[in-house]
Amino acid sequence: MLKHNKYIVIIFLSILVIFAACQQDDYELGTLTTPTNVSISYEIVGLDEENPYGDGTGVVNFTAIADNEISYTYNFGDGSDNKVSPDGTISHPFTKTGVHKYTVTVSAVGTGGLSSTKSIQVEVFSSFSDPDAEQFLTGGTSKKWYWAADQPGHTGLGPNFEDPGKAFPAWYSATPFEKECMYDAEFVFTMTENGVTFEQTAGSAFIPGTYADKIGVEGDVCHGEDVVPDLYGVKNVSFAPANSIATVDGKYRGTSFSFTDGGFMCWYVGKSTYEIIKISDNVLEVRVEEDGTYAWYHKFTSEKPSASEELDVVYTNLIWSDEFDTDGTPDAAKWDYDLGAGGWGNNESQTYTNNAENASVSNGTLKITAKADGGSYTSARLKTQDLFEFTYGRVDVRAKLPTGGGTWPAIWMLGANFPDVGWPACGEIDIMEGIGNDPGHIQSALHTPSSSGATVNMKSTTVADASDEFHVYSVNWSENQISFLIDDEIYYTYAPDNKNADNWPYDADQFLIMNVAMGGTLGGVIDPAFVESSMEIDYVRVYQ
After folding, report:
1. Is 433 annotated in the active site?
2. Within this chain, do residues 408 and 343 fall inside the same structural domain, yes or no?
3. Which of 95, 235, 342, 513 falls 20 to 30 Å from 229 in CA-CA distance?
4. Catalytic hit among 348, 389, 428, 536
5. Distance between CA atoms of 373 and 370, rounded to whole angstroms?
6. SS3 at position 87
7. Based on the number of CB atoms within 10 Å of its own CB, is 277 exposed (0-12), middle (13-18) or buried (19 or more)?
């Protein structure tokens, strides 16, 4: 329903236009007045005897006053966007490293758009840097980024006027490949001797309906240089401490980056400053404010998505399965148990048992049940280690997930050489992981020597009814690529170009694992009211 907000806005604006037309005869233009007595003062944050140019944050607080003004517009003389302040007060971070002098101009705007200006010079010191962010963006040399078009929410809209807890795309979240015209956009960040540069090297500018009316063009479509002259060309990139409402929430990186010369990343709302939500080798999530009302959320990736991903090998020969047709305990010829507590390094809260109350078969499904047990928790982790192991093939698991904050259901695989080489050298394939504290969130991941733990080789999606209905979670594993599917639709493929032991430990046998953990690094806080919940598995089938 949220995707229809733009139409609600259009209807609302149409009503306003009709109302304005009806009132036209009563409208009377007031006296045009030019503001006078414009003055501007400032305070450099952290300035004292030992720090004559400030504390290194580069932040300066400005105050402008005038007579007969309506609002104020600031130009900070550093290539950043002009900013409007209704009351004349504003804070601005100057980001160029070192001590630099800037000419700051304020325009006091009166009725009819008449204005008066005043300029001052500010000399301020900035020492802020985020070398890790620079490395991720550029790869140390030059790196190309794309829209994460295959991911839900690769662009989204939320409020920019709520408390920090509302800093997410609460109003709208795009479905995969929803905005057809913009996915050929390519963005290049380059490390140079003088810092980082940015250039959009392909694609167009998408202008959302929220902003299109402000510049008098058609909205929710793509435009070229004729509408947005600053679309192309090399821009300089500066970094600064982030200071938005979202940063106050403490969940973001705390860094923003800005482009000179009106640069932007395809989605045009007249802004050149992006706040980093998350950044890694192949993930860039940012937030950009359109104005005091709107905040846009964008996801980019360094691995170009494809709308027409295909399996390179189709496996149809069923070699192993469990249909769970016999009531009782799981088939001992097919399943063994991991036993014990702690979650093997994941800080989980459950103890794994082989008790029937934690793992049983009835009415055609296997139930893996996590239970509260007097202040602690029990559950089960089933595996085929030493019973069934294979190299290459497809796994289909039809399952319905548990509910409750803190539950962490997982269907996954581990290299059979785990006892000899350890983890992550053995390789791990996470077919499906769910998060009870984020209902509907589903993710798949690969853990290798080159990327383990909080691996960059992962992707998430949303299955809204994952705990109400059965869905088929699959992996298709060949010698060339590993693809993850939900209900036979591919949503993530891992296929490194240059395979080696560090990024591809997937040329040897793996075994299957299914479990429900409680808490831990992904499960998070456990609901104090949690009693018990089960992951139900209808079948497990392996094809080659």
Report:
1. yes
2. yes
3. 95
4. 428
5. 9
6. coil
7. buried
DSSP state of 385: T
Region 336-352: mean pLDDT is 89
What is the mean pLDDT of the segment spanning 271-278?
A: 93
Q: What is the pTM of this model?
A: 0.52
Q: 166 phi and psi, to 5 degrees?
A: -95, 15
The amino acid sitting at 278 is: K
Q: What is the pLDDT of residue 310?
A: 82
Q: Model confidence over 457-508: pLDDT tens digits?
A: 988 999 999 999 999 999 999 999 999 999 999 989 998 888 999 999 999 9
C-alpha 401/C-alpha 145 separation (Å) is 34
Among the options 310, 433, 489, 532, which is catalytic?
A: 433
> For 209, which DSSP code?
H
Residues 286 and 238 in one domain: yes
> Same structural domain for residues 333 and 416?
yes
Q: Give residue for tokens 């998430």.
A: 460
Query: Total domain count for the chain?
Result: 3
CA 419 to chain centre: 35
**437: amino acid identity, one letter:** N
Residues 120 and 188 in one domain: no
CATH number for the domain harbouring residue 521: 2.60.120.200
Is position 428 annotated as part of the catalytic site?
yes
From CA 244, how far away is CA 260, in angstroms rounded?
A: 20
Full domain range(s) for residue 223: 131-301
Cβ partners under 8 Å of residue 196, min gap 6: 134, 137, 138, 189, 190, 236, 237, 239, 257
